[in-house]
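Table S5 (text form). Sequence records supplied for joint modeling of the two-component complex.
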Amino acid sequence: MAKRIIPCLDCDLAVPQGRVIKGIRFRKHVYAGDPAERARQYEQQGADEIVFLDVTASHERRETMAAVVERTTDEVFIPVTVGGGIRRVDDFVRMLRAGADKCSITTHALQEPDLVSSAAEVVGSQAVVVSIDAQRHEAGDANGKGRNVIDTPQGPSWYECWTYGGRQGTGVDAIAWAVEAEERGAGEILLNSIEADGMQMGYDCALTEAVSRRLGIPVIASGGCGRPEHFLEAFTKGRADAALAASIFHFGRYTVREVKSYLANHGVPVRLVCG
Amino acid sequence: MELPEIGVLDCGSGNLRSISKAVSHEGGLPRISTRMDPDWSGLVLPGVGAFGHVMRAVRSFQNDLLAFLHEGKPFLGICLGLQVLFESSEESPEEPGLGLAKGKVARISAAKVPHMGWNSVQVTRESPLFEGIETGEHFYFVHSYAANPREDVVVATCEYEGQGIVAAVWRDNVHACQFHPEKSGRAGLRIISNFVGLSRGDP
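The corresponding structure-token record, covering 478 residues in total, follows.
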């Protein structure tokens, strides 16, 4: 199977057509064009999938998101995932009907784990992505007792699931939650490192590897990508099936095509699109 | 030039938007319907969900479907639309398939099921649907069951966890692929375009 490269489009849905935000997630934002148009450009460059993320996770704006998905899938013929603002099984159905292939859930999956199972039952596991925002803690923390502790470059650590866009801790062990999400019928895990996110210093490969090793479903590495080497590390050290990135592509430093030729030259199986 | 009308059969499993958009993108006129129309120039049977569910829907227009095929008009089965061409499936043993091709559909025996993602497809025999597609091209798959034909209908295969999987079959006017051409980027659109061409009666 080809390793997937997935550009993530952070969307602001406060305007009727929606608009792409670029910049460090949850912090300062610059507006960067129409979501459907950006998705089309990435498809042409060879993106394997597109993720639209409603950064405000506004449930009331899901019709705006559905319209964005519809406009996109009029012209974009690769899988599309929608995240942010998905709270109910109905929301999955709505987005899939609009042309999306998968929905990702973070906060609401943790608050209501049955949502994972019931969504999988209605739309199928392949359409249910559980997204985990993981915050690293040193294993020495009092809170670290009884957690999955792994070796990281920063020393032995455990990871906590955070919710509300990385604003609120839950005390839930991220590795244990990934395992539970699979048992409940998640088709994929989107694993985002809060510490690495926006730093462009590379993915958290220790965490990615720890989760990948324990699961039978694909793991998408997310957070921290700044250079093509980071993708390579995610696939080799991190054993990820796919890697998601935003700023490396948005700021035009690299195209998806450049990243893929780099990976192909380093022996990673990728889908190359000519043109 | 008049666009060829292509029926997209609705078996009740939801998302037919992508396939009909792909058909119109490639110059066809998609008609989403729960019933057959003999005037269509081509027919797509997309299938999502379970074998039994799709077959129960197919029963309601099975005779019209067979008459359509008998006329020699092009048919494209996608995913479960390929599987229902066979005699039966482990997924829904109580529900026989169309039996247009000999063989059964069985669950993929691999560590990771479903087989999901972009896989490289080997073209094993020339066929109208794969015109212009190079062997090794990637297509997007999402399925847990795969066909085991007992006759020579296979035109493309892929490898998953060391085992061969049927990626496409063809006989006469009946074409089918296990992957989703409507989600397989440019290569997928080429498949759709080839099918629209067949429906238009291109030489």
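Note: Chain A has a mean pLDDT of 92.
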